[in-house]
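Q: How would the structure tokens look for this protein?
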Amino acid sequence: MAKKKIDNEQEKKTEESEIKEPETVRMFKDDFDAMQKEADSLATSLAEAKVEAEKQKLKADEMTAQAQRLQAEFDNYRRRTNETNKRVRTDGAVDVLEKILPVLDAIEQAKAMIKDKSTLDGLQIIDRQLGDLLTSFNVTKIEAQGLPFDPNLHNAVMEEDAAEEDKGKVIKVYQQGYKIGDRVLRHAVVIVGK
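A: Here is the predicted structure in token form.
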């Protein structure tokens, strides 16, 4: 009987271990399935995050390009505005300076005709002040006397017979020409040798 009892106990232990083993396997399988679902869920979340990150990167690239275009447009606008303002200021100065030039002509003619020294001295002071004003606006006289005729700077009103070395050159200046920078305010009115 004792042997039977021992055999029964061993049978019970074997049955218990057989029962526990499938239960343990089931627990591992359940844990594995849960981990697999979590891994699948994480993989799905990662894929969605990658798609969202790509969308956000494209959006950021688009906004960066738009910001660069706006910056370039603003730089162009500022440059055009500066050029326009400079041209308007220059045009305004040219308008005023063109009105001063006949006064300079009158002073030159008066200096040639006035014989009274004190009056001539006063006139020369005015002439010098007007010359300083023109210089402050970068206005210079156009050189003409004895130089080859240049239609960009000179306006020929006559041709006169001249020595061989003076042919095609300015032999007399009737009216002084002026320019502001490279822009001609008034062409020099000249006689050219032929």
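The longest strand covers residues 154-160.

Helices lie at 2-113, 117-136.

Upvote if useful.
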